[in-house]
């Protein structure tokens, strides 16, 4: 191929030069084009980094063009309406239609295979409720016995997405939409920006391991900066991010290309650098210290609701947190359960695909443990993970959630086309980029109404589903209302798949066999599992043991 290219390029240059010199000067244009292409080919043959280009000069470059086009070609011309990942075409279209207030009904029946394992549905009633008589804006009050400023929130809110990951226009559109629709907007761990505050929408301020916006020069938590911002009237709740479903156990990553001077100022970091959040918090180092940190944040914020977000990993660690709550009689106002199926955050492939419990499993576990320990009444649960429809809301509430957060659906509402370029700063719709040539295309005044529309119609559809099931109260939905097919001839309710733990049963010692080892390994003074023989009580000695390989007692 190299010889053919060399011979063809030289011959073409000679012929076009001859034609330009003897026939018409217009051929010089063709000669110039061929000269540029030839130079590219000669460079390809001489460079040593790319094998394909070295062997197939010029033509080898088409490989990279096809790689760039592949996701778009697949999405628009190859995949079916139900095959797309992470969100299929049907769900994406539903979000777009509701955001634009277009017709969102479906003709000719479902395209889903209702006999395939994994198909899920909600049971309807022969005596459904009149939709018009139901409350189409169900609310949840966040705030327990220690909260002095409870928050009356929607059952569907915007999940954590930082300014930096998203463009300023996208953040503004979401916050303005939240203001119109009277629901909350989670800031993500990137800190409070003027774009979060500009339109007056309710905010859940997320504090991650980098403590962006409330960190000192060393990157540690700053109580002074936190108190100053936490008392802003738009900030309704505080969320400590322990882990997220996109990359549990891994810190967040802000590429250098997205770290503009403005973002660096908001986060209190150096501009133009790749910012990696630590995988762990430095403000606390044990379940007991986490509970103390929650108490501190509640006091610094003036008594606002404080909670934490996590993706379930070692079950014993969550149980240890619950033990610390009971011991110190201090409870978070809410717990956000994220699913290992991930969200908008960019992450290494192994973390996205193979780390963290999926949402439904983690959610059922958290609700069971809180009920079993008789502390559920202190804590609201928020489910976060691939919520795009009213059925998804119903499914999570059936498993124990009080409310839901969604991220990807809100991105779609402001114009995302699932181009899968979020981590490149080249998002073509201006949603997940800081490049002005893309962001100028996202018009806040148009997109803010689409965010509000999507929220309104999705919640309304959930309420209609609830009415179809014969229910008039969100709290009446149980695990018995949702079915899943497990084979061609077998289907089970969620109650059969995720058997509930009775209220207070764990306090009475009736610990299910599957959780006994988790309770034995849970220690409020340590993360991780308990070493053989237990902890000695000496901090230095215990740290050496914790750093070594240990096994359950």
From TrEMBL:
Protein keywords: Membrane, Transmembrane, Transmembrane helix
Coiled-coil features, chain-numbered ranges: none
MF terms (GO), sorted A to Z: glutamate synthase activity
Segments of skewed composition (Basic and acidic residues): 540-553
Source organism superkingdom: Bacteria
TM stretches of this protein: 30-46
Annotated spans, Disordered: 532-553
Domain Glutamate synthase intervals: 156-471
GO biological process terms held by the UniProt record: glutamate biosynthetic process
Similarity remark: Belongs to the glutamate synthase family.
Name the record gives this protein: Glutamate synthase
